[in-house]
């Protein structure tokens, strides 16, 4: 379960403002097309007009330049702001009675709040976890590994 990984290797991404973000982690598994996921804050800093999309939905998304140890490439589409979502294994889906679709999530703590329009994705190679970007995590004071409550749709 969980064929996704974070490689030790990193790249630099360069936006239209000629500003760069270094040490961007490479994630897997490999995809059919190159994809770069950034936050809203990153998009403003880099000058990239990236759409909010689920991972893998890159058609007509933003261009970006990727710089690695062997040179640079520019992709004409593939840069997105990742839409918040939950990965769930079918066993967890059945256990909690949550199918693919849209849910809301309650976050407790000093900066408590509710995240709406959270996509649930169920696949055999997923571990049960929620993926949000650093902007969302910081706004609600969420720490890695923190428990949240799925409210339903």
UniProtKB/TrEMBL annotation:
CC cofactor: Zn(2+)
UniProt similarity note: Belongs to the PduL family.
Organism the protein comes from: Clostridium celatum DSM 1785
Catalytic activity annotation: propanoyl-CoA + phosphate = propanoyl phosphate + CoA
Record's protein name: Phosphate propanoyltransferase
Entry EC number(s): 2.3.1.222
Keyword terms of this UniProt record: Acyltransferase, Metal-binding, Transferase, Zinc
InterPro entries: PTAC
GO MF annotation terms: acyltransferase activity, transferring groups other than amino-acyl groups; metal ion binding
Pfam families xrefs: PTAC (PF06130)
């Amino acid at each position: 379960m969980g064929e996704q990984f974070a490689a030790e290797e990193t790249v630099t991404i360069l936006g239209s403002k000629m500003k760069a973000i270094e040490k961007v982690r490479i994630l897997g598994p490999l995809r059919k097309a190159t994809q770069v996921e950034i936050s809203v804050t990153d998009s403003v800093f880099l000058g990239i007009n990236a759409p909010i999309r689920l991972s893998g939905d890159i058609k007509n998304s933003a261009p970006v330049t990727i710089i690695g140890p062997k040179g640079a490439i520019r992709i004409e589409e593939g840069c997105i702001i990742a839409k918040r979502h939950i990965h769930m294994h079918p066993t967890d889906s059945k256990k909690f009675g949550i199918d693919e679709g849209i849910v809301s999530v309650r976050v407790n703590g000093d900066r408590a709040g509710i995240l709406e329009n959270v996509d649930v994705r169920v696949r055999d190679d997923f571990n049960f976890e929620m993926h949000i970007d650093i902007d969302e995590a910081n706004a609600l004071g969420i720490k890695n590994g923190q428990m949240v409550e799925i409210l339903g749709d």
